[in-house]
Specification:
alpha+beta; Alpha-Beta Plaits; 3 domains; 9 helices; 11 strands; about 25% strand
Length: about 300
């Protein structure tokens, strides 16, 4: 069986019943598994991690997008995380027995169906991007839902699929193929948003930081603190432990402590092995030394 993963992001992090109703759309499919989901009130965003057979995953993603269009109205939406759509982004990630090119075909099919049947403009991003400026999701999302009313009229921002005007309540959506990404956030012991933004700038590749790190400084009003919110697009080359140590180092300049960190969604075991190896100073250590990993390997044989 071919396996893909998808991690759709929805612009709702405060109404649990809404997120649960969107997730229930996956129950129609016997080869789609929701492995994890989370929601954040400050970000006003939910993230669902699912895996399964590619064609069923694509059908489930379409149904979830349709349900989100019905339940989420961005005209009444506020939150710390940038957003441009009710279903904001749909990545498709190859897991097993499937190539990137095959995944691109699924992404194109999904984007076309969303555009034509749901009348939501679709932008292809990352490895599916149709122009260099669309490879980076943050560039597509710039201006957010409100800004897209005018942005979509520009020739360079003509959608890949769907109408050439923003959906009045559901906005636009990005669909694309990418490698595994780790969503990683570090909470700071201050309410000074400027400090979080400065630290994010030092980490972000576009502003001189690590090659595979995207970072924002965000305010968590409910907790009375700020956060450095990051996507690690290649955890092997821009490692969690190195990013964490940099945040800690930069925060010390301002006399600020780290309160803790969080991983959104799921994470490859190798990323944790690398972190354990670094902090414990382990020699000759890899995933094969973890008993649960070895048991899974034996059971698969």
């Amino acid at each position: 069986m071919k396996w893909v993963e998808s991690v759709p992001n929805f612009s709702e992090g405060r109404k649990k019943e809404t997120v649960e109703e969107i997730i229930r759309e996956t129950e129609k499919y016997d080869k789609v598994w929701v492995m994890n989901w989370s929601m954040d009130k400050d970000h006003n965003r939910s993230v669902v991690t699912m895996a399964g057979e590619p064609s069923q995953i694509v059908n489930a993603l379409f149904d979830m997008t349709k349900k989100a269009r019905e339940l989420i109205d961005l005209r009444n939406h506020t939150g710390e995380h940038p957003r441009m759509g009710a279903t904001d982004v749909i990545p498709i990630i190859p897991l097993k027995n499937i190539t990137l090119d095959e995944c691109k075909e699924y992404a194109n099919d999904l984007g076309k169906k969303i555009g034509e049947e749901l009348r939501i403009p679709v932008y292809l991003y990352e490895k599916t991007a149709t122009s260099p400026i669309r490879a980076d999701l943050s560039v597509i999302r710039k201006g957010q839902f409100e800004g897209f009313v005018e942005k979509i009229k520009l020739e360079e921002w003509k959608p890949d699929f769907g109408p050439e005007e923003i959906h009045p309540s559901a906005g636009v959506v990005a669909v694309g193929v990418r490698e595994f990404l780790i969503a990683y956030n570090v909470n700071l012991g201050t309410d000074n948003l400027d400090i979080a933004k400065k630290i994010a700038k030092s980490l972000r590749y576009r502003t001189g930081g690590y090659r595979y790190v995207k970072a924002l400084g965000l305010e968590l009003k409910e907790k009375g603190i700020v956060q450095v919110s990051m996507n690690l697009t290649n955890y092997k080359k821009s490692t969690i432990y190195r990013v964490f140590e940099t945040v800690k180092f930069e925060a010390a300049r301002y006399g600020v402590n780290i309160l803790g960190s969080e991983i959104i969604g799921l994470i490859p075991i190798q990323a944790l092995v690398n972190t354990c190896e670094y902090y414990l100073g382990l020699d000759d250590f890899d995933a094969s030394r973890i008993i649960e990993y070895r048991l899974m390997d034996i059971l698969e044989k």
